[in-house]
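During the reporting period the student researcher (J.K.) took over the structure-prediction task from the postdoctoral fellow and processed the backlog of single-chain submissions. One of the processed entries is reproduced below for the supervisory committee.
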Amino acid sequence: GVHRVTPPPERFTFALTSNLTADPDDPNRIYLVSRNTLYMASADAGGAGRVWNRFEVNGAQNPVLSPVWSVEAQPGGRLWFGCGQGICTAKGKELRVFGRKDGLPPGPWMRLFVDREQGLWARSETHVVRFNLARQRFDAVDSGMAGASLGVRNPNILKDPQGRILMNVDNGIARLEGGRWVFVEDYEGDAP
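J.K. obtained the following structure tokens:
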């Protein structure tokens, strides 16, 4: 539902393009990124709630985690977010920052997505990766993307009912089928 949050934290303003995700374990909690800062919002049974900076220490954002670009929550309390030039994950007091040594090209990771199988996908303006849970590292899945730009204004990534990964690119939609990207551009009639 919609909750009234009072009062917001000092200097808090909600950016209209904010990325947000619901906590799958707590229906009264959401995580949101606004102005490159990660916030957590929660509501009590009466609908009143509060918003606070998730990683503020002594009034300042942890510099390792700045700026924050995107956020996604998994069941079991795992939170993923694009941080600085990498991807961070937090669970309770545990915090890990993934970077180049973990198979992750540097860059602002603008959109994260957890699929039905709890696999994490991420995209930047130039790359698409998937977290390999067994190896605890990221694998590139952007092979074959030549000619399509991932640098779109509102990047999205999702999995359709048939289990295919879809994302918007500058000239249409890219669909991952059998390990290969298929591009759906301008068409007439029913959508494929």
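The committee noted the following: The mean pLDDT is 82.
J.K. will present the remaining backlog at the next meeting.
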